[in-house]
Amino acid sequence: MEAAAVIQSLKDACPEAVVAEGVNAIDPWVQVAPLSITKAAAFLRDTPELDFDFLMAVTGIDLMGLEEGVDDLRIEYHFYSYGHKHTLVVRVDLPRGEPVVPTLSGLYPTANWNEREAWDLLGIRFDGHPDLRRILLPEEWEGHPLRKDWKEGPTALGFETTRQSFLDLIRDSK
Amino acid sequence: MTEKVTGVEEHADPHVELVEENGDMVLNMGPHHPSTHGVLRLILSMDSEVIGKLTADIGYLHRGIEKIGEGIPWQGFMPYTDRIDYLGAMFVNHGYALAVEKLLGTEVPARAEYLRVVADELNRIASHIICLGSVTMDLGAYTPFLHGIRERETINDIFEEWLGARLTYNYMRIGGVSFDLPSGMKQKILDFLDGFEIFVKEFNNLISFNEIFVKRCANVGVISREDAIGYSLIGPNLRASGVDFDVRRDQPYGVYPELEFDVCVGRGIKGTVGDVFDRFWVRIEEMLQSVRIIRQALAQMPIGPVMGKVPKKIKPEKGLSAHARVEGARGDLFTYVMSDGTVNPHRIHLRTGSFTAFSVVEKLAPGMMIADLVALFASLDIIAPETDR
Fold first, then answer.
1. Which fold has domain A3-137?
2. Among A114, A126, B144, B189, which one is most buried in terms of CB atoms within 10 A?
3. What range does the domain containing B146 cover?
């Protein structure tokens, strides 16, 4: 099914969910209100004509620095259907102060780890997630490094993050 | 006389209890363990030899490659993609190149597309040999692994002469490839393929149909079709569970539509669909299909340039984003790129096969014997740096 038709059927089924759409983009996308994401995903997965059974990726993006005055966090869910071979990108924009979105791990088991990654690196919280812990970084890590305003501190996990240049060391020893 | 053992408390991991509340023993497998093929850690709660619960701990090889990508120019990220998957660097190269070409709308010359296919498929053979070899090695047979390494060495030699690197190729460019085939290389590849088909027969006689090996693999670690799709298993792991999907055929890229090949799906030839043996066998069949593809690609390859027209400074339009999918050795590799209108990317994201394959282990492990877990783990072909990025 064409992306425009998919987006139209989503709009017909849950009109309150769809906030914006981009049919002519490189990858056609539809933006969904954060609290409607579970309903929209359930509709996309369970409708036989759509049958989006494969959640390809959960990508967290920090929009800071892209446009003047916009500092939201965004999640892009890439859905694919093995049966119908069509793709859809679903976007959710979240305010930086409180980036919370319902989890999809009940619908797609793979969302469990992918959402943990988004929490770990971007600090997006997934409401109702069974086990929202850091996955790639150690538990003691401070901050979420893929946020654009994250700055490396002088030490990390007890190690210094900068070191003297080797040439300076030689010069000092003389 | 008993001496009080000191120092144990300080060395014990503060995150892990030694005995669970229900009396199960906690066993720590990894991060340095021969069968994890890299730095991965599994925390197992054991009731005698049966696993009660498995907790995976990854991130030991996290190098923040996505963060690095945000600080360097578009072209500069290519060598980093090699480091994501050291056994299948060509696919990560290809995925990233495709995604950026999609942003820019770049045309890739026909010869470069064919060269990409030849490089990809040779890399697929090399990667699958290592996977098959390590499955057998983890189950106690050392010789097949060495036979496999011997064949892979020839591929490494071919790559070394062709593009100057044995593992971290950095071969693809945004808009083409870096080198054409050197003279005489075509014949060398064809000679290798002839020998390789004989090798696969040898390998099958040596191990694939070995009674003991089959008994260790058949009906072990069965992944159902629903689990395979739900947990986003991809590539050979997905096909072994009976899902007939291949990016090269169903979401074609490059010149794959002009090449003829079969998609190999698990049929449960020695046990159940989706067991360890199916994953092993799908890879063997795929290597033979790769041989078929390389022969066609070398025969059809036109003469011409290997680089398209790409500006020196790549600056895709602000706010554009695109994703690309490539059928890598570990499956449908997903690459996402987003531009902010400068020479550096705004965001790069990769969803790799090992990451999702690892997540299904937590679901499957309860109730398995620990020796079967090793077989399951090996058959999923998990590469630690690819999991962590």
1. Beta Polymerase; domain 2 (3.30.460)
2. A114
3. 65-353+369-375
